[in-house]
Amino acid sequence: MALILTIVKKQTSCQTGLHYDxxxxxxxxxxxxxxxKLQVGFQGDPNLPxxxxxxxxxxxxxxxxxxxxxxxxxKKRQFKDYTIGDAIxxxxxxxxxxxxxxxLTAEENLRIAFIxxxxxxxFHLDTSLYKENTLIHPTATIASTARVLxxxxxxxxxxxxxxxxxxxxxxxxxxxxxxxxxxxxxxxxVGHHCVVGEDCILHANSVIGADGFGFYDKNGVRxxxxxxxxxxxxxxxxxxxxxxxxxxxxxxxxxGDDTKIDDQVHFGHxxxxxxxxxxxxxxxxxxxxxxxxDVIIGGQVGVADHVRLGTKTMYMGLTGVPSDTEPNSGVYFxxxxxxxxxxxxxxxxxxQLPDLIGPIKELLEKQKKQD
Length: 371
Hints:
Number of helices: 4
Radius of gyration: 25 Å
CATH topology of the largest domain: UDP N-Acetylglucosamine Acyltransferase, domain 1
Distance between the termini: 85 Å
Structural class: alpha/beta
Number of strands: 38
CATH architecture of the largest domain: 3 Solenoid
Helix content: 10-25%
């Protein structure tokens, strides 16, 4: 049976995948059909319709999981943290008693089953739509006031709103949306199903929506984890030259309104970036980082994955951030990141160490003689 996805927004529909603020549903897949495709067991109503996959990490623990969506749960404590209700879980057969609707497999095969599940939702370009050599696909929607300069490419079902300017070499992939009055300079790429808000600026060779860096090694085999989500940029966002924002594994990598990102900056998949954030050149933000509002990230700062940067905090250049920081907790510096005053004291002591080596050696020699 063919996989058919319908996307719903204001009573409109379009092809496979995420699109703007839409959700997508599987029209032709039931719990049993998915289990058969994955070659796993299941429990629950075999005819239960499945609407898609959700990211457990983005779901508030205080709210029940969404009915008819699949969540990946590999640890028993996750079942204690969330109310499962009518949601569907992909889990190991050892945890079958934790949910009424489940896709079940042996624990050692669980992550492979998850990768195969993601592949059911992976977007594939319909090359049959490109029988003619054209830069602007006839199914694209381009406002009359938009300006698509020679050499720019707008692919199928993309949307380009009023007064947008696309410079030569820009590529807008299928189902992407470019908000009104945004300007994309030469070589900028907006990946399929990604969203650029209004009044945004994408400088030369920036890439919105490349695959997230997701791989899994098992028994000598390296598996690529499909990245089926998208990127959503808010309004008045600016992305510097050659900067990259990776698409989410399942839902959306988000960049909030009025955030400004310098040249050669990277945000990994699943990042949730707030409003009015600054990120200076060469900063590297790992996957699944939460950057709260009004954060300032200096040049060449590195942030470890799954870290939360508290609102109104600042990170001086070359700082390495391995763990969460509290909101309104000031300026951080160093590796690992510490409050800047504390780091200055540490550096002051380090500066004195060479002068202390001689006296310390003398004390040790005296101690040996006394012993």
